[in-house]
Amino acid sequence: MALTVGVIGPEDLVQRVIAVGPPSGTTLVPLPYHHETEAVEVVERSHEKVDAILFTGVVPYTIATEAGVIDRPAMYVSYDGATLLRALVELLRLGHNVTQFSIDTLRRSEVLETLIEAKMPTDQIYVLPYRPGLTSDDIVAFHRTAREKHDTKVAISCLGSAFHLLENEMPSVRLAPSRYSIRSTLQALVLTTTGQHVGDAQVALGVIDLPEPDDALAADLITLGGSLAALPDGRHLVVTTRGVLEQATEQFTRMPLLDHLASRHSTAYVGFGVGRTAAEAEALARRAVSRAASIGSVAGVVSMSDDVEIVIEPTGDQPATARGPESLPLLARRVGLNTQTLARMRELVATLPDGLTTQDVADHLAVQLRTARRVLKRLERAGLADPIGSQQHGRTGRPPTVYLIRL
């Protein structure tokens, strides 16, 4: 299976990864940026180009993860002990004192373990581990403080933007990942991505239970790209794959098939099973359709082999505002959020009926921005939120998106 991996990071490190070369059957696509703050934008531009993403370090990976823009397998190249030792040897060769230095991004335990193994003193080593929200300015300030207060002799940075600010002020070195780290991370990423693609190809069987024959059913199932057969008990069997089913149901959040069936039948139950074998998928599908019959007059359920059961109910052709507020328990099952969160969101929508931003949600729910983004994403996938523009006035940088919420 041919895979395409996007490599995201500063230009020089991206080229370092490209030079190592891809695993067999894999193509590497360089996606460099000038500053790590551009990582989110680069990820968003890469969605149609790559199957997986390799970040050249933990900083851009964390920034993209916090922004909630990673929707495919992604890993970052770690800076292992060999990387640090190689830098220290180079500093020694240049005549620098490597017993007094400050270093950022790496974990303190990782740095000390490497130095202890090399039989080097650790009492004058100052470490700033990376954490979400840490900026290049914070890192530069850390190294300056270490020099002023502790008389450190060298600054070692894993962040290019920080290194370029420091190199003219004090002896500095920038860490770059070793070829071994790059190669091993690439191999792990390819294995993970291949495994996910295999999961997409898992067999998915559906059982449809209707009160009377339906000549239009075959046309409704075109989006599933599978086959339809009649079962001896009068129900219908659908054969497709997990990947196609996810796409047709918008990641198991909506099932247009239910709306079509609801318009023609008084009752309609759809159950899909996703399993490792056809027999397992069929057993799960029969369990799912029975579960659907216990929910209401029209319902769908997707059951998986790891005891995951997703309830999907019809959305109807009319907008939610015309149908009236949906009950919170039903809405919670459909969207995948708890009832308390949805109740708080309804409160917020009542105060901001013309649109709200991620920051509005974060402030109202008292959660971090990444959590607020996930809430909005779930509502959007369920057809309850639409981006309608952005807030431009009185702001610098990237303007926040405004969402219209229908709850």
Automatic annotation (TrEMBL):
InterPro entries, sorted: WH_DNA-bd_sf
Superkingdom per UniProt: Bacteria
Protein name: Transcriptional regulator
Organism of derivation: Kribbella steppae
